[in-house]
Amino acid sequence: MRSLDGRFSYLSAHSSSILPINPISVMPNGPFAMITFTEDKQDQVSDMGKLLSNYSTLFIFGVTPSSWSRRNHFDFPILVDESGIIGKKLRILDPLGGGIYPLNCLFIFDRYGDELIKIRLGYDEGLYYNDRDRTLELVLRQTCRYAESI
User: Fold this and answer.
1) What structural domains and CATH numbers belong to the chain?
2) From what superkingdom does this record's organism come (predicted)?
């Protein structure tokens, strides 16, 4: 994730000002979480952001391919990836969406930019977590603690 070439825009948390940006300039030096989403999944994204906000050392940002035309109401910044570069690089383009839009996913990376976990929201239930003894919150807590420790 440390090398990306493409056209990106950036929206700060709770902002409506869209700025062109090089995404590498906003990458943190510590562990980070990235949530890829399309505009119709904003409720899921908001829930993920709330779960992740418990980890103060974890930088959180969202990535959407959409032409974002309104205020960012999330508590984290959004990268607008108009050309789908991030989705292609992470191999998460939805084949049912014509390979244009990314699947709604949550990634956690360590401080070196190495992917620790990828959870496809709405698809990976039962693979990493369930509703009984291994909840999504537990999986995120364990992964975030690990990311903070290395």
Assistant:
1) 8-149 (3.40.30.10)
2) Eukaryota
